[in-house]
Amino acid sequence: MSDKAPAQVAVPEKTKPTPARETRGLGSGTLLGWLFLLPAIVMLAVLVAYPIVWSLIRSLFGADGWSDFVGIDNYKELFTDDNTFTALKNNLIWVLVVPAAVTALGLVFAVLTERVRFATAFKLIVFMPMAVSMLAAGITFRLVYDRDPDQGVANAVMTSVHDVFSEGAPYPGARPRNDAVLTPQGGGFLTRAGTAADGTALLPLVALPANKIPGDARNARPGVPAAGGLGGVVWIDFSKGNAGKPGVVDPGEKGLPGVKVEAVRGGHTVASTTTGKDGSFTLPASAAEGGPVQLRLAASNFAKSFAGYDWLGPNLITAAIIGAYIWMWAGFAMVLIAAGLAAIPRDALEAARVDGATEWQVFRRVTIPLLAPVLVVVMVTLVINVLKIFDLVYIISLGSSQKEANVLALQMYIASFGGGNNQGLGSAIGILLFLLVLPAMLFNIRRFRRENR
Question: Name one GO biological process term (predicted).
Answer without folding.
Answer: transmembrane transport
